[in-house]
Every structure is written in C-alpha cells, then in structure tokens.
Write a structure and sequence with these properties.
It is built from 13 helices and no strands. The chain is globular and about 55 Å long. Helix 1 packs antiparallel against helix 10 and helix 2 packs antiparallel against helix 8. 28% of the residues are buried. The chain is mostly helical and 241 residues long. Helices cover 79% and strands 0% of the residues.
Length: 241
C-alpha cells in the first residue's frame, strides 16, 4: 500500500468510527431476530459479515423463522436490496475509469446506506481505500453487535434495545446536514425526499410497496427531476473540489 492509499485508508477508518458505533447498537436488535429464527452466534456472525444489509437480514431471518423456501428468500432479498444497484452505479461515476475490477467488486460488495452517504461526499475521485477504511471498522461493528444480540440481547430490557436503534438515525442526520447547510438546492431535495418517503409509506396504495422498491422509485424520480432542473456542470464540480 503506497502512502496515498494508506492516507485514504486512515481517513476512511476515522470517518468509519461513527458508522461502526451505530451498527454495533442497531445490530443488537438484529441479533435478537437471528436468535428467534433459530440461528446460533456463529451463524449470525457469518450472516452479518457477508450480507451487510440490515433490512435484508431482518427480512431474511423472518423468512427463515417462517420456514419459507430458498426461492422466496432470493426474491425478497433482490427486492429489498435492489437500491444498492443504484448506489453502486452512482459511486462508479466517482471512480477512476482505469480502476481494476477487483476494487470495483469490493466497493460494490461493501456498500451500505451509510458508507454510500459518506463516500458520496468525497469531492472529485473516490479512492477505494477510503471505502476499505470504513469497511474495516463498520463490518466488525455490525458483526460483533449481531453476535452479542444473539448471546445476551434477550436479557436487556425492551426499552433499552429500542433506544439503541436511535443512534443510526442520528448518524444519517450527521451525513445529510453539512451538505444541506452549504447548498439550498440539496437542502430542498432532502426535505422533498423525506416528505415523499413519508407520503409513500402512509398512502393506502403506495404503502404496500416494499421499502427497497420505494427507495428506488423515489431515488430515480427525485434525482432525475433535480438533474433536469438543477444540473451541475463539470466546471462547477471542478471548482467545488
């Protein structure tokens, strides 16, 4: 690892600390769901270390508990986690065109909502070692939290477990507030996104759509409209960087 990559890796680890702490707290609840589905600590650890998808894992554990088929699980995972396809396409635009396939594969595998949000804020080109630094802390945090949730999660009071999940929402706010304060367009789009997401979750017809599919629909619509109404020219991007 050369000096530049090492510097990006350290920067990623630094910015990955709050992600890891948030994951550690939230995955307690995931561990309880895994235990209720009949998984032991080793199985839960393998699931969290390889899947990296909170909503997908919760749904997967529910499918296991219900005794559903592999086909049903595969379809559910595809629908719930389809938003990561959009995130991967978005981050790919920030990568060096000559970046080897292996790095692209690892970045795609390690994308989560939070890692994507932080990586998207990097100006100009995205160094893969920045993502690796975040992954180096967040994946163990997610995995260890799951294991502890399986082992001791049911011992904790319900209100304590519920409170642990609030930390992740605070981390989301920390990701979106700085760029929103600097750019009124971004602030407006964040507000519109929140309002539209709330409306889709509450409206009778649209509420039946899965959360993952709702995310995809809103991302494509809002990002597409914003690209037409508020285009960012290449000169502006270079100046901002």
């Amino acid at each position: 690892m050369n000096n530049e990559n090492a510097a990006w890796f350290r920067r990623g680890m630094k910015n990955g600390v709050p992600i890891a702490l948030g994951y550690f707290a939230v995955s307690f609840t995931l561990g309880i769901a895994a235990k209720n589905a009949g998984l032991n600590a080793i199985q839960g650890a393998l699931a969290s270390a390889t899947t990296l998808a909170s909503a997908g894992q919760f749904a997967g554990f529910n499918v296991i508990a219900a005794g559903a088929t592999y086909v049903e699980m595969a379809v559910m995972m595809l629908v719930i986690n389809a938003r990561y396809l959009l995130m991967s396409c978005s981050l790919s635009q920030k990568l060096d065109p000559d970046l080897p396939f292996f790095h692209r594969l690892m970045i795609g595998w390690g994308i989560t909502d939070e890692i994507f949000g932080v990586a998207s804020c990097v100006p100009d080109r995205l160094n893969p070692f920045y993502n690796y630094g975040m992954m180096a802390l967040s994946i163990p945090g997610w995995t260890i939290g799951t294991v502890l949730g399986i082992v001791v999660g049911n011992i904790l009071p319900a209100n304590v477990v519920s409170a642990l999940g609030v930390g992740l929402y605070g981390m989301f706010l920390a990701i979106i507030i700085p760029p929103a304060r600097q750019n009124r367009v971004i602030a407006g789009l964040v507000a519109v996104s929140m309002a539209a997401s709330f409306a889709m979750a509450k409206l009778p017809v649209l509420s039946g759509i899965s959360s993952g599919m709702r995310t995809i629909i809103l991302t494509v619509l809002i990002a597409g409209i914003a690209a037409v109404l508020f285009p960012v020219h290449e000169e502006e991007e270079t100046h901002a960087a």
